[in-house]
């Protein structure tokens, strides 16, 4: 069998054995009669999504690009047809599974957000964003959404334990590792375990990452404090906590099957106004 056919066969086996990436949420800023995207803008959106799929095959799991408008990444004013694109995989999702998630997300966002000026889509293992305005290196907490499981906590003292555990994750992500993401497991009551993950868009500086994650932690008691399994997510960062190991352990490789969603089921959007 020729080497190329062998490689194709191996990739087919990986795709078949891996779970399909799990859609979580999306946001689309639809066009209006006064703000309808031009044909060239729509073409550049398609080119950005194609770039995501191709670039993720060789990247470190995240990257950004600008297509159109002269390709100036520092142009914050937004040219008529300039599209600013960004993708990021969860820190424990690497290699082919990262590309697999992003390819799925790119196809889905094209279906869910046709003719959108700005769009974000979240899967359990990756995120894709694009806009006509540059958002690189900026904290975006304008639209925070959450998901919760059905299982409730045993008593209110758990809320403080959760907050302390997430503070630990934030410290690891922004100070101890400087990787913009961290995951850990915690001993809990009744011989139980809890598992947490915090991650920022990897275009943010450490202080911006800390600001973003702290903003989500402030929302946690209002939306999710009574639940064992929960996630609070924004375009710039996300936090998840569960009694199920939803991420890949550190001794796993990028060829391992993608984790299932665990106990989280219900979702809602919480809009946080910026002043």
Short description:
The chain is α+β, with helices and mostly antiparallel strands and 275 residues long. The protein contains five helices and eleven strands.
Which terms would index this structure?
disordered C terminus, 275 residues, single chain, 5 helices, 11 strands, 5-stranded antiparallel β-sheet, 6-stranded antiparallel β-sheet, alpha+beta
Computed Rg: 19 Å
First-residue to last-residue Cα separation: 63 Å
Q: How does the overall form come out from the CA principal axes?
A: elongated
The percent range for helix content is 25-40%
Q: Give the amount of beta strand, in percent.
A: 25-35%
Order of helices and strands: HEHEEHEEEHEEHEEE
Number of β-strand runs:
11
Structural class comes to alpha+beta
Count the DSSP helices. 5
Sheet with most strands: strand arrangement: 7-8-10-9-6-11
Average per-residue pLDDT, rounded, comes to 84
**Major beta sheet summary:** 6 strands, antiparallel
Low-confidence blocks of residues: 3-17, 71-78, 251-261, 267-275
Pfam families: Stress-antifung (PF01657)
Organism: Canavalia gladiata
Signal peptide: 1-18
Protein name: Gnk2-homologous domain-containing protein
